[in-house]
Write a structure and sequence with these properties.
4-stranded antiparallel sheet, about 500 residues, Glycosyltransferase, about 35% helix, 8-stranded antiparallel sheet
Length: about 500
């Protein structure tokens, strides 16, 4: 069976609890000092989408060809205040793109949006000097694409859900940062939706943790909203792969099974779960490892061991629970030579040592799996290995409470997503009684620092980009907004 093709043509049954309709839910902070001004396209004809590709959820999108321009105007007067231009990605990006902004008539430059190696459903922004507000109100903005390939963005409101946060808009605010309330208003909504797989799975897990630990009903409703986006009326899984090609009723390898942990909690008898388990079995090596090819990855701690533990516990399947613990033991090799490695290849090669988000995958996978199974299985050895990994991560924490993208490199900028995930794992261990209370201040210090990275409308910025751009991009100062990072911050919030 091919590496990225182990769930296919799986007809999904009833969601049960997920099928009840939801009332409309606000997708924007109630902060009256912050507002979005939608930007309308003027006299622009988009090219056709390339054959074989698709836009998520059937939302409307437009494309810019290299060198092409589009003029947009605000649909209402921009108030005085801090100002950001925003646009969200509608097709997977595997190169670098720049959107140059200028006043539509006078050609005065306003800024450049830098978009590199991006997944879909991620917003990008650039701050604009508020001195230009009167002329933007009058002239509008001309956007010109500099890129070797086209750029696709969401461009019109959807008729079923409020997707305004993903459309081209100007964000106006009296503030430069947001509050925890802004974060929650944004996260507990459609706004936190990510591409299906590890990104969306991290978000769903964050929503579940807030629901289960804080009894937050909005979090449960948001889970339902997210699943409604990805399953059609016949309950088929409908989404696109990392090349924006339809991948309906299929799952892309081990990194993509994390969303089914949340699905299993809500609908444990769903038939697709049996297909997921079958897929793990077919990817299992002779020694029992479930991996892609010859690579042992930190992601597998969180995207395989954890959902395997959840399903095994719900089904009371002893073999599945034992297999979940074995997946962690097979990944002990990543905790080596006082480093937390992202990947280990069976020929003995390590890559991405001390990458913060890789550390988060390891620690979250261990802490979540232990928490699920500690009352039913013998986990003492795994707890010891988890604490060893925590000590390694803690030794590299910055003075401000965050962790650098490569934790051991002093000149590397922090990564808010990895920092949040590491801290969430630490508090999970403490709150479940298998990690010393002395570590709590480590996580609390991170929380205090993360609050400075909330945008006025509640997104999390300061996230290291997806590693599809390689080590060089990770070592650079390039940072983005990313909802999958919000998923890890939400898990930290839930554990506090």
């Amino acid at each position: 069976m091919k590496r990225r093709d182990f769930i296919h043509t799986a007809q999904l049954g009833s969601f049960g609890i997920l099928l009840s309709p939801l009332p409309a839910m606000s997708t924007f902070s109630q902060n009256k000092e912050t507002t979005r001004i939608v930007l309308k396209q003027l006299n622009f004809k988009s090219p056709e989408l390339p054959d074989g590709q698709r836009i998520p959820f059937g939302w409307s999108a437009a494309g810019l060809l290299p060198g092409d321009s589009v003029i947009v105007k605000p649909d209402k007067k921009i108030p005085d205040g801090n100002l950001w231009f925003r646009v969200s990605v509608a097709q997977e990006i595997w190169d670098k793109k720049q959107l140059h902004l200028q006043l539509a008539n006078s050609k005065e430059k306003l800024g450049t949006v830098d978009i590199q190696f991006s997944s879909v459903l991620v917003p990008y922004e650039v701050k604009i000097n508020k001195k230009y507000i009167p002329e933007i109100n009058r002239q509008g903005i001309k956007i010109t694409l500099e890129s070797p390939t086209p750029f696709w963005y969401f461009n019109q409101p959807d008729s079923k859900v409020n997707n305004a946060a993903f459309l081209p808009h100007l964000l106006s605010s009296q503030n430069n940062t947001g509050t925890i309330d802004d974060f929650l208003n944004c996260f507990l909504s459609i706004n936190s939706t990510q591409a299906f797989g590890w990104r969306e799975g991290t978000v769903l897990d964050g929503l579940w943790q807030i629901f289960s630990k804080k009894n937050n009903k909005r979090a449960f409703k948001a889970i339902q909203q997210h699943f409604d986006l990805y399953f059609d009326k016949k309950q088929n899984l409908v989404y696109e792969n990392a090349r924006s090609k339809p991948n309906d009723n299929r799952v892309n390898g081990i990194e993509s099974t994390i969303p089914f942990a949340t699905l299993a909690r809500l609908h444990p008898e769903h038939p697709i779960l049996k297909t997921v388990v079958k897929g793990w079995q077919e990817m299992k090596k002779e020694n029992g490892m479930v991996i892609d090819g010859t690579m042992v990855s930190a992601e597998g701690c969180y995207t395989v061991a954890y959902p395997m533990a959840v399903i095994g516990k719900i089904w009371q399947d002893k073999a599945l629970k034992e297999n979940a613990l074995e997946q962690l033991k097979h990944r002990y090799v990543l905790i080596n030579d006082n480093k937390l490695n992202l990947r280990y290849y069976t020929e003995g090669r390590y890559t991405y040592p001390n990458w913060a988000r890789g550390a988060a995958w390891t620690l979250l996978g261990f802490s979540r799996t232990i928490s699920e199974l500690m009352d039913e299985m013998k986990v003492d050895e795994i707890i010891d290995k988890f604490e060893d990994a925590v000590k390694i991560a803690v030794s590299m924490q910055r003075k401000d409470g965050l962790w650098n993208c490569f934790m051991h490199e002093p000149n590397s900028l922090p990564d808010t997503s990895g920092s949040a995930g590491i801290s969430a794992a630490i508090l999970t261990g403490i709150n479940n009684g298998f990690l010393s209370e002395s570590y709590r201040s480590i996580a609390e210090g991170c929380w205090s620092a993360l609050e400075n990275y909330i945008t006025p409308d509640g997104f999390l910025k300061g996230v290291a980009q997806d590693n599809r751009g390689g080590v060089e991009l990770q070592q650079s100062d390039y940072r983005v907004i990313a909802q999958m990072g919000m998923g890890m911050m939400a898990q930290l919030y839930a554990e506090r």
